[in-house]
Amino acid sequence: MTSNRDVWVFVEQEEGKIADVSLELLAKGQELAQKLNSQVCGVLAGYQIEELADKCIHHGADRVLLADHPELEIYRTLPYARVAADWARERRPYVFLFGATPIGRDLAPRVASSLRVGLTADCTDLQIGDYESKKAKQVYPDLLYQIRPAFGGNVIATIVNPNTRPQMATVREGVMRRRDPDTTRRGLVEKIEPTFDVRDLVLQVLSREVRESQVNLKGAPIVVAGGAGVGSQENFELIQELAHILGGEVGASRAAVDAGLVSREHQVGQTGVTVRPRLYIAAGISGAIQHRAGMSESAKIIAINTDPNAPIFQIAHYKIVGDLAEVIPMMIRAFREKAK
Ligand code: FAD
């Protein structure tokens, strides 16, 4: 098995807009490539999307492999997998990263199985480091540490692929920081004509309906989140009212979602959205590790909980021990007064 040391990032785009997670991965890819003394290559596929190549370079790509073809206009598993797997088979990158989005989660396993390599899903961190196998009595230098929660989030596992290339992973949205675009960066754009097998094109998209998400948790500067402690729909309306007054977004723990208090797109945490707002208000949330995984990097955290020993208080900057049904109306009144 031979490979170069390049880090590839699948750049997901829809209707000419690059997914945030891809920009985050280009920045992380640049950090990894510097440790490997190699380059970051963006893999960009679509139709009439040539101008996106520059954006990839501004966000960290040194090179862009571009497939611009009418058959790639709308994402379909087989043609996209054909492009990504054929190129990776031919050029053997060292690392190949995808966002853990619906598209990335569909595409990456298909590419990995076509290349007969492993894939670690839903990583929350990536590093470069050596690995010593006691069994093989061998040290493998500069492997990709694929880091993710395991066993229900109770341990953080580091997974390595010593023997196969590329080392492949999908990465959670929002966990890596994107960098500000540097429009002075220059890179190489290589346009490659994809070749499809007729079997790649068996699925035809006849029509498409896109529903914009009504919830923008990732980009919200303020998140007011409710947990199981909110207890009732009536109390959850207090969470929504406070979020509205502060110009923020409503978040929730999984327990609140499971209790039917709010829809799943509001869930924050390991299996929900990762947020990093300026202010996160956690009301009636105990602070389980899986919830904290999605919000612990918030700039300021206010926690409201009746239990003074609730784990959320370990990471809160402001701690309010009390009943949220009393505390939140007081906060709403205070903010209303201030806004007058
Ligand atoms: P609880 O743990 O039941 O806490 C309720 C809190 O409310 C308590 O601290 C209580 O003291 C307080 N309270 C009660 N009444 C009041 C009141 N009147 N006023 C103020 N406080 C009050 N969880 C997530 O949130 N996000 C995830 O993405 C996620 N992913 C998971 C993935 C896996 C694989 C697993 C195994 C679990 C996951 N969980 C996730 C679930 C997680 O382990 C917890 O069960 C969940 O976060 C608990 O939600 P909670 O804090 O709202 O509920």
Topology:
Layout lengths: L6 E5 L1 E2 L2 E2 L1 H17 L3 E7 L5 H7 L4 E6 L8 H15 L3 E5 L2 H14 L3 E5 L1 E9 L4 E13 L4 E5 L7 E5 L16 E4 L30 E5 L6 H14 L2 E4 L1 H5 L20 E5 L5 H4 L7 E6 L12 E4 L2 H16 L1
Parallel strand pairs: 1-4, 1-6, 4-5, 5-12, 6-11, 7-11, 13-14, 13-15, 15-16, 16-17
Antiparallel strand pairs: 2-3, 8-9, 9-10
The string of secondary-structure elements, in order, is EEEHEHEHEHEEEEEEEHEHEHEEH
What Rg do the Cα atoms give? 22 Å
- DSSP summary, beta strand count: 17
Bound molecules: flavin-adenine dinucleotide
CATH architecture grouping of the largest domain: 3-Layer(aba) Sandwich
Kindly report the CATH topology of the largest domain: Rossmann fold
Largest sheet: 7 strands, parallel
What does this protein structure show overall?
- This protein is of the alpha/beta class.
- The protein folds into two domains: 7-201, HUPs (Rossmann fold, 3-Layer(aba) Sandwich); 222-339, TPP-binding domain (Rossmann fold).
- The protein has eight helices and 17 strands.
- The strands form four sheets. A seven-stranded parallel sheet has the order 7-11-6-1-4-5-12, with helices on both faces. Strands 14-13-15-16-17 form a five-stranded parallel sheet.
- α3 (77-91) crosses α4 and α5 packs parallel to α8 (324-339).
- The termini are far apart.
- 41% of the residues are buried.
- The protein binds flavin-adenine dinucleotide (FAD).
